Amino acid sequence: MYHFDEAIDRRGHNSAKWDRRFIGEGKDALLPFWVADTDFRTLPEVNAALAKCVEHGIYGYTLPPEGCAAAAARWQKVRHEFEIQEEWVTFLAGIDCAISTAVQAFTQPGDEVLINTPIYTPFFEVVLENGRQVVSSPMRLVDGRYEFDFEDLSEKAKTAKLFLFCNPQNPTSRALSREELEKIGEICAENNLVILSDEIHGDIVFDGRRHIPIASLSPELAQRTITCTSPSKTFSVAGLVASVIIIPNEELRRRFEAVKERNCINTNILGLVAMQAAYTHGDDYADQVTAYLQENRDFALRFLRERVPAINPIAPEATFLLWMDCSGLGIASENLESFFTGAGLRLSGGTAYQEPTGQFVRLNFGCTRATLKAGLERLERAVLARK
């Protein structure tokens, strides 16, 4: 049994989320619900594996540990019914690196790269930084749930070379259905697009759903897909920057590896040691952290609907991220950040994800229930003070 209610003080340990430069200190410090990592201690087997590596005391040039690719393959098969071969696997420092590598490997300067919005910030930043054009297909909010506009996506795919998307989706926390993924695959196949699927949140899905890797739907779809995942969100090891990139197509893998080697973006030994331990021993932990996060989600949704009805939360189907419509507060978009700061909270503003109205924020509920409750109570007091 893991203790996710354990309060662990992350201040003074270089945590980006809890750093005083971003949240202040003392009685005026903000409660941080922004950076997308969790405040939970990782599983003991990860710590033991890292301690063994550190005890050795030599950090020379290293190869990926024997068995690391096999552990990643086991995880995909057991957790997601996605059978992969070890030779399809390569490792990178992080999925942001994978996005940049894919953009360079599969497009040329000036080419169009298709994304859907709102979306995780690097999806468009990396494209622009590499001299490509971003083409956005906005998702539609229908009855409190974000959906793809497949007619729009199909039209814009005609001139694109690469489709970047994430499933589960960040920041809307959708877990895409088989039917949606099949439609995405059909559109990409018709237009000969390479697909990069960021599935970093795939272990954390709620209400009995199952994460479906798009590459698992058919051998044909797998041949055009780069699947990116990592233990970082599930096991609280984001700072060790290690990700798994799965590329069944030999030619795509060769091109991806060539850019990776040219840019020197391999991962480090500690990240891979942690990955192997997590993917070997982490099944119970993953189940328990998902159950705890689902309870956090339910607590937050209930609290907001009963006590802060001016804020409309979009119920997460996955992830520990809560996307909230704040238009009911009646606060101008340019003043929304200062309102939350005044409430004693640090959240992520929706414009960073290319949300056009400026009325959405993202709240990370990957924390203890007590921290979540304290943050929501601060929000309630701030809203009541406006009346």
TrEMBL record:
GO terms for molecular function: cysteine-S-conjugate beta-lyase activity; pyridoxal phosphate binding. Keywords: Lyase, Pyridoxal phosphate. Residues 42-379 form the Aminotransferase class I/classII large domain. It is an enzyme of class 4 (lyase). Belongs to the class-II pyridoxal-phosphate-dependent aminotransferase family. MalY/PatB cystathionine beta-lyase subfamily. Its cofactor is pyridoxal 5'-phosphate. This is cysteine-S-conjugate beta-lyase. The lineage of its organism: Bacteria, Bacillati, Bacillota, Clostridia, Eubacteriales. Its EC number is 4.4.1.13. Pfam families: Aminotran_1_2.
